[in-house]
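Internal QA ticket QA-208
Title: Verify multi-chain structure generation after dependency bump
Assignee: T.L.

Test input:
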Amino acid sequence: MWPLLKEHIEKHVALTDEEFEKVCSFLTFRRYRRKQFILQEGDISRYESFILKGCCRIYDTDSEGHEHVLQFGVEGWWVGDLYSYLTQTPSSCNIDCIEDCETVQLTLLQQEALYKAVPLMERFFRIIIQNAFIASQRRVLHNLSKSGAERYKDFIEKYPHIEQRVPDRQVASYLGLTPQSLSRIRARKR
Amino acid sequence: MWPLLKEHIEKHVALTDEEFEKVCSFLTFRRYRRKQFILQEGDISRYESFILKGCCRIYDTDSEGHEHVLQFGVEGWWVGDLYSYLTQTPSSCNIDCIEDCETVQLTLLQQEALYKAVPLMERFFRIIIQNAFIASQRRVLHNLSKSGAERYKDFIEKYPHIEQRVPDRQVASYLGLTPQSLSRIRARKR
DNA sequence: CGAAAATTTGACATGACTCAACTGGAGTGG
DNA sequence: CCACTCCAGTTGAGTCATGTCAAATTTTCG
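Actual output:
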């Protein structure tokens, strides 16, 4: 069941087949359509979603109504608003699907039960979050030290697959640029 | 021993006194002088340091020689370069002391032994890193959506204590501004 | 006290933003 | 299949925040 998930977990911890089956028993499969919300501002982020197929974006709308993309999610990534999820308070983020998506999801209660049933999963999630933290720190540094053009160049090198699946305006938002600025940056290169 | 550490751990997991003593037995106390490096670019980040007293900064130097402050560390915070620490590869960061510091430190080997001896500590560090990740994501969003003046205002509200212990130029660097710009922002307010 | 570092200030340059108009492709309905 | 709309992307003009370079001033600390 869900070979992508199995592969993903095995990258970080060694589970027996039996343990992996146990893990699966705590997860719930769910499909979403293109443009559908996985999470909407004001709601509680009730689950962390592992993406089996498809592409989505996590974004926030600021006081001026501008959207800022925090993260894209594709196959093999987890998406959710961790703060809202952990504290069970309303989220300020939206997550919507750029393509039809297939996910497996875990609620906080299920996750806690999972830790009891398969203690190694505590380690697994620690590692996942560690990596996410390291990536986020890198991004902070990038945003502090590089120009828009450099950030764009690094982005397409690092995520060539995502760049082709996502509209430019959302890439611009991820990079902290307006669509116009990104368009000019691209025009300059050619 | 190290009441600040005890208080800090107890915020997140419930340890017996005996367990806490065990935890302490894996840690090494170490002092640093003002201006001394805890970690220097090119070296491996051999330990995660919990600050008992003092103030330090983690920063990175870009290709143009400009410094960018990633994080300040004061009493009750952990500092280190997690990526370098986990992979045992050379770090691109520096950590230096803004004041004389007292720390307790954990090497990767000690940490792994600690997880075996006191399994709850695996949960403890997961929570610490979770919080760090959430804070880092917030900062990304902040940097994308707010002006220099707003970022400064939010900074002094959130870290009034740090702001008074750290030179302005380093606050500017943390915020992604030049010292000159920060100086003008401050002048405007008055 | 005196040197070195930090901060401030001025003049000017520039990258990115805003607003607005235009272009072209995708989807829809007649 | 065409006309129409809608939306993403592009382009132009003007503005603004922030950066750069340089010099003056203040603070820090050895």
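Spot checks passed. The first strand of chain A starts at residue 28 and ends at 32.
Status: verified.
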